[in-house]
Specification:
Blueprint lengths: L7 E7 L6 H11 L4 E12 L5 E10 L3 E4 L5 E4 L1 H9 L1 H6 L4 H21 L4 E5 L2 E5 L5 H12 L1
Length: 154
Amino acid sequence: MIKTGQKFTFFKGDGSPLSSPNTHLAAAIIASGGSLAPDGFRDTVGENADGTPRRTAVWMFQEKPLRFFLTDGTTEEISTSEFTRRWNDLEWIAANSDHPIAFMRAYQIQLSGLRDHIKKTPPLVEIRKGGRFAQINPNEPKEKTDKLLAYFQR
């Protein structure tokens, strides 16, 4: 139950929470000691005014200090809202590349890029015969695939 005087940080995004960058932000806050508010996650589906489908994910975190151990041996405490501001500020991330938030954000950016690459790259078809094997890219021209298979059949 929310009590008078409590503060919260909210953020929302359109689309599935499984593909939303906000889910990465939520995970980073939790990994840093943050806490979801009671009923602090909502995933809703509905329609826009024009009848098109709409899906929205909303995250709500209790506002509390998050402590970070910095590379120079000091510690820093920031609010959940400040964490969110830094996470979304790529200039801050670039200027503070040794900060734990920047490490987590860099990981998230790289993971998203790798997932995009994986989605665009079809798996290779592997054929084995005896001690030989061939890996065929299904997007290669048929002539190249035929040439590789001919060599493989020798």
